[in-house]
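Forum: Protein Structure Q&A
Topic: Joint prediction for protein chains with partners

I've read a bunch of threads here and the consensus seems to be that you should model interacting components together rather than docking separate models afterwards. I'd like to see that in practice. Below is the full input, 329 residues plus whatever partners are listed. Could one of the regulars post the assembled result?
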Amino acid sequence: RTSDRRQAIDIESGSAVYSTDDSRPTVLAGGVTITQGTLRITSSTAEITMRNGEAVRAVLRGGPVRMSQQLDDGTPMNSVSSTADYDMQADVVVLAGNVSVQQSRGSLNGERVTYNMRSGQVASGGAAGGGRVKMRILPKNSGTP
Amino acid sequence: MNWRLVLGLVLAAAAVAIGASLWRQRDGGATPQQAGRSDYTLHDFQLIALDAEGRESFTLSAPKLTRDPSAKTLDLATPLFTIPPRAGSDGKPWEVRSKTAWVSAKGDEIRLRGDVAATSIDGDGQPIRMDTQQLNVFPDAKRATSDVAVSVKQPGLILNGYSMDAKLDARLVQLRNVKARYEK
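Posted by a regular:
Agreed with the consensus. Here's the joint model:
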């Protein structure tokens, strides 16, 4: 949801090496879970960059990285990828490596996908910087004959 | 019975008795510690401890200090420790308070217990605070550890965890079983 980005970010992890100043990111390992409103991301490791007391970027790796969020229309968005690079100021997540994005409208697979949380827009392939894309768009009322 | 033999036996018994008595008193009787008393007590003092090279290791002020004469350790009530950054580093001093504290004989380990609060300023001028019930500080190594729950706070962030190992000068804090909240 667009309101997610005004929520606090809660993080749980097995361990953390926290740097008290902004020059180095805080490194989280041992299984990481990040929640922010309806947004939920799980991964093996994460690096959180702070600037002036605010988290500005989270780079998540491994595991794979699983992300889920509820869109403003109430429908869910789920993704799986090798890495996720979350720019918390621009509200954009770049998913890379065996990316699979599932939405109610259909699914999308590729090597690199950019997901804009403000608009809910998903860009992939050339638009996202690389790789071929496979997309499946489900018919409007796929349930009735 | 031959009186010389009797006399010899009596003298031998006396010698044994004297020897035993001397042996019992060899450590000069009960030391102050055994008598449960420190050998000196300070009130409302400030102490500057120096390391092996003569540099300030830490500054300590407290309303009361008692010294254990045999172990040569210090016991403190509501102390305030100030730990300077390593010479030449851009670190800032740490202030550490607690209900009680114990300082090792060489002054290279400080055990703080009860409502421990450590505060400092980070490289960006932001305040940082650690709260816990137990903190072990190694002033010369500029390091602090804790085996119990620790909460680290900075503007915009609360970090809770266990098994802390903090490098005070490098301003790096390692924790396990972490829960963090970043405020927007």
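Confidence is low (pLDDT under 50) at residues 27-34 of chain B.
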